[in-house]
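Quick question, first post here. What does this chain look like in 3D?
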Amino acid sequence: MLYVLTALKCEAAALDGLPGKHIVTGVGKSAQSALQKIELGPDDSILNVGAAAGRTGGCYLVNSVTDLETGRRYYPDMLLDSKLPEMPLITSPAIVTDPKEGFLYDMEASLILDHAMRKTAPSRTAVVKIVSDDGSRRPSANEVTTLIRGYREEIGRLIEELDRENLRKDYMPLPESVMDELKLTQYMRCEFEDLVHYCVVSGKLEKLNSALDQMRADGRLPVNDKRQGRRVLDEIFARLR
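> Answer (accepted):
Ran it through. Tokens below.
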């Protein structure tokens, strides 16, 4: 099952007729009650679509989400060929009135991904945000609907990508010893397995192995603790994205 989640009814209205089960979650932490009612399985997919604040207008595939309150980071969309430009997003507990250049801002994406990634692979999640304002004014509901409707074709293509069966992860071509070297938590292990899957299907597995070998040669692997593992994992992500 593909779930298409929006925070507002005016966002959902722009997507009427597109495939998937459409759910309006509500804004910010109010989304949590709606998320708890979604019975996700490992083969289900989640697409979060909505408006966001930003300095540069357009429609973006979000390549990372940072929760401003907890500091946790989430990495969706590793395998998707959406043709959309990518940008990182920050989920804030309050409306952002002065967005920084190079970032998008919303109030619920991190909550959605936190729930989704407990049940399904990061490669089966995606976040699309359309810049609706620069923080200086709140757009009307009609403005949001019209804005998102202008990107229905792009969102429709992304839905097709998310529905592909070959997004399922069913292998791990690297030895288990790599996990021990990185001292990964279960959450970080899921991130790393998804990265490996991405490298296999995109032809970058050799590049990943070279990065690991270089870190071993530099004395950075194996790491001493989970905090170092987090830093190394983030660096690997940055090299291969």
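Residues 2-166 form a domain with the Rossmann fold fold (CATH 3.40.50.1580).
The longest strand covers residues 45-54.
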